[in-house]
Amino acid sequence: MFTKLIVRKLIDDRNLKGLREVLAELAPPEVAELVEELDEEDATVAFRLLPRHLAAEAFEALHSDRQQQLIRAFGNETDRLAGLLNDLSPDDRTQFFEELPGPVTQQLLSLLSPNERRIAVRLLGYPEESIGRLMTPEYVAVRPSWTMEEVLAHIRRYGHDSETLSRVYVVDDKGHLTDDLRLREILLSPPQVRVEDIMDGRFATLTATDDQETAVEAFRTHGYFALPVTDSDGMLLGIVTADDVLDVAHEEASEDIQMIGGAAALDEPYKNAAIRTLIRKRAPWLVTLLFGEMLTATAMSYYEAQLAHLVVLAFFLPLIISSGGNSGSQATTLIIRSLAVGELVKEDWLRVAYRESISGLALGLILGIIGFGRVVLWEQVFGTYGEHALLIATTVGVTLTGIVLLGTLFGSMLPFLVKRIGIDPAVSSAPLVATLIDVTGIVMYFSAAALILGKVLR
Amino acid sequence: MFTKLIVRKLIDDRNLKGLREVLAELAPPEVAELVEELDEEDATVAFRLLPRHLAAEAFEALHSDRQQQLIRAFGNETDRLAGLLNDLSPDDRTQFFEELPGPVTQQLLSLLSPNERRIAVRLLGYPEESIGRLMTPEYVAVRPSWTMEEVLAHIRRYGHDSETLSRVYVVDDKGHLTDDLRLREILLSPPQVRVEDIMDGRFATLTATDDQETAVEAFRTHGYFALPVTDSDGMLLGIVTADDVLDVAHEEASEDIQMIGGAAALDEPYKNAAIRTLIRKRAPWLVTLLFGEMLTATAMSYYEAQLAHLVVLAFFLPLIISSGGNSGSQATTLIIRSLAVGELVKEDWLRVAYRESISGLALGLILGIIGFGRVVLWEQVFGTYGEHALLIATTVGVTLTGIVLLGTLFGSMLPFLVKRIGIDPAVSSAPLVATLIDVTGIVMYFSAAALILGKVLR
Fold it and tell me: What phi and psi, each to the nearest 5 degrees, are found at residue A176?
């Protein structure tokens, strides 16, 4: 990027006047991108030169680790720090505070003006992951008795801070939300018409204490750019805008995907994560899964005699346990996503169990028949498996059918189970399901072998 | 839901007048929810009773299978069908057309008014998954020389159809986008000020032919509710709104998650999918993976002699191949998501390879040491593994280290490789990586055994 080269040159030359001029011409996201890419020291130099308004907007677009570095770099310059914090929009400020240790948040809160502090404390009072944390109190509210002319005058006077003007909210004298009006309706109505004349009493709201996922769903259904947030009594508290919700949806999807892959959520872009973070986030799960897998070694030791009699049996073990794991992976990811986006709810488990039993059986039969065919075919062509080939083929076919059915059923039920005990269903990751299925696969396989091959193994 | 009971009762009583009145009072998303939940016949009855405007808005919120059913139910009533299609907003109409077979789209296009048809054909002309397909031409554009008063008069006259009024776009006399203005700036400026006086020449745009993922990124960075779309010459073509982009982000995440789980993308909510669809989407991958797994049986047959000598070796095979698969799953999902959201690009592969080599080695050593410890400990306590326990422990430890390193490296590189040959990186799913690692794990394990246990196996 050309700008980046210029900025780098100006920093190297310590041409702060030139740098200030170049930076002032950039849009906030450009500044943020630049500040992300500079090293800590240069980033601080550049950030200090930004005009006040630009600094706040750029700050909002930075990743939280860079935000924290800059705040530390401000050190004891409480005036500048206070200026910056007061300029941030309340929703982005909440997000920033969320990432800080409690005492630091307290310290920074004390730098806010009484009014901004009141707002910040109120927003931080909502539970984590709740809609309240996404709210901004910067909206325009009007009364039913006002004329369009009065509404427009009100917007001209108080609309400066509003996050969006595409909707204006109508509240009664107790502060209850009673309607929303599109700005276009206001602009397109004659000046003397009253708000109550064009009200239709139809409006969508979010509840402050609800989970942020509900907001994602509501925005997708309604297709609005902003939705009002009320408390349980219908009092208007603030608004949530689509861009913040897009962020939430994005983070949640990333978290789910990382958890499904069997790692803790990374919480930052891959590129920014230190290698030790990458290890720290992945080792615990891998080790846990390894301990789970150790059960397979124990299980197998029970079948030592069978194995010694017929070593060929071991050949198909990887194939069987992996097929169980694969079918479990498919089922669990399908259900985790459906639960995450609200297409399925806890109460659907029985219906899902029914559907997955049928799917699992069908998939199991397909794989079982192929597995059976493979053993028979190899025996015909290469004579690999000796006199008991047909019995071995039957054992492999039956076990494959059983383990795929079981894997599918188990993979689809585990997310419901995990959700019921109050944990994010995404922890029932593909690797977890696969590991739990492995032990079952071994027991199933050798039991089937004992039944079908009977005497041969004794 | 109370309304649902009433509607059901009214349909059962064939009280169409009452039904019409109840439906007319609902918001479009409520109507859509209701229509989704009724059976096909009742849904058609209810939908026919909707006032024209409500019908169009509710139709836009329906899933594509229900949309298609309704269109079929309209049969030859071309007038009503034409009315509905012309009332749909251009972006939602494009999405609906996308789901239809070509000939049906052609037939429906012919029902549009010349103007709407021109718009529809133009939007359908953009490649699938491109930003052009999300565009709507319903925006307000103004000229630099206009005064605020003229701008407001223009909005009052032409703003009816605009999807959003929160921004107004400034174009020069050739149609090039030169700036965007917030509606608030216009409302807050004195009526005689000209557009060019408040222009700052800073604006963000999207390019029509770019991938929709770019739009998701742009909305996340800029935090706007709508972004203008231009062609490569900077001509303003339309706008894209945040709600459509939220839909895109949502669909892409679902698709990725389902593919990572090792199934084809479902393309519809789990609940709506027929059981045969669930089977059809999952069987091909499971069968493909099974064929991959068959290589493990072949690989193992080469080590029959080793196994016969020392059956204990088989005990640790599931543990080793699963650990390789788990570390591969972790790495591949991490990288797939980073590639999908643009945190990583194709060119980053070398850097990722470096980071993942170190992470993989560290993770491998952790698991290897634990694996070694497990074998030694069991031998001490239970005496399970006989005289060669220490050598077996070494074999297990070394192989675990190697396979975790390899799994991590392979899992992180496969998405890059797949992307390079032009396929969605999400196909390098956790099960695919696990299956490919399994064969390697077997070869590695028995090679290590041959080296370390040497004479014992001969």
Answer: -75, 140
Question: Per the structure block, which two tokens stand in for B317?
Answer: 């095979």
Please check whether residue A167 touches B, CB under 8 A: no
Spatial neighbors of B305 by CB under 8 A, at least 6 apart, are B457
Q: What pLDDT sits at residue A237?
A: 83
Which residues are registered as beta bridge partners of B239?
Answer: B136, B228
- Top pLDDT among A255 and B316 is at B316
Check CB contact of A293 with chain B, cutoff 8 Å.
Answer: yes
State pLDDT tens for residues B356-399.
999 999 999 999 999 999 989 888 888 777 788 889 999 999 99
Render pLDDT for A286-322 as a digit per residue (tens, 0 to 9).
888 888 888 888 888 888 888 888 888 888 999 899 8
Which domains occur in chain A, in start order?
A: 2-125 (1.25.60.10), 141-248 (3.10.580.10), 272-457 (1.10.357.20)
Sign of CA dihedral A366, A369, A370, A372: positive
pTM: 0.71
Closest-CA residue of B relative to A299 is: B315
Residues with Cβ < 8 Å from B334, sequence gap 6 or more?
A258, A261, A263, A266, A270, B412
Question: How would you class A420 by CB atoms within 10 Å of its CB: exposed for 0-12, middle for 13-18, buried for 19 or more?
Answer: exposed
With a cut of 60, say whether residue B1 has pLDDT above it. Answer: no
And the tokens for B384?
């399970």
Among residues A211, A216, A186, A209, the alpha carbon closest in space to that of A199 is found at A186
The pLDDT of residue B353 is 93
Interface of A with B in 188-247 (CB under 8 A): 188, 202, 204, 216, 219-226, 241-247
Residues in chain A: 458
